[in-house]
Amino acid sequence: AVPLWVCARTAAERLRHAPNRVLLAMFLVHYAQRSLIFPFLIRGGKPMPLYTCTLAFMFCVYNGYLQSRYLSQYAVYADDWVTDPRFLVGFCLWLIGMLINIHSDHILRNLRKPGETGYKIPRGGLFEYVTAANYFGEVVEWCGYALASWSIQGGAFAAFTFCI
Questions:
Q1: Domain range enclosing 46
Q2: Contact 100, 34 (CB under 8 A)
Q3: Could you give the number of structural domains in the chain?
Q4: What's the pLDDT tens digit per position in 22-68?
Q5: What pTM, to 2 d.p., does this model score?
Q6: 46 SS3 class
């Protein structure tokens, strides 16, 4: 919601340029999937500590503001930036990372049958190669976004995602 609020409340003059719109769309597509689709697919789950939820909320609010404000007000890209190899490779990495993340979440959601509570080891997809394929997908996604945006803001987001 924060990126949409920023763009509605300010003269988002930089969004007249295709590269800025595409980069903001990449950000918004991820969070639409993460906040509007993903929660309706999970069944049950364990309670989350309020402290963790508060920190995640603060990170998302600040990062949403930072990314949207930068792309709508300050980021200057040539109109042909969307054909630059950095953008193209970054966009492909972002898409691959998002698909890895969605597929890995699907595997995790279907680990247990209804009523089961025991520990299960995820199998399939990239879980055959990495322990937390869902997080790996998220890191690949935001590294791709950082490359596509070629910005300190995108790089910081990728670095913090990796650290988290």
A1: 1-163
A2: no
A3: 1
A4: 999 999 999 889 888 887 787 766 778 899 889 888 988 888 888 98
A5: 0.86
A6: coil
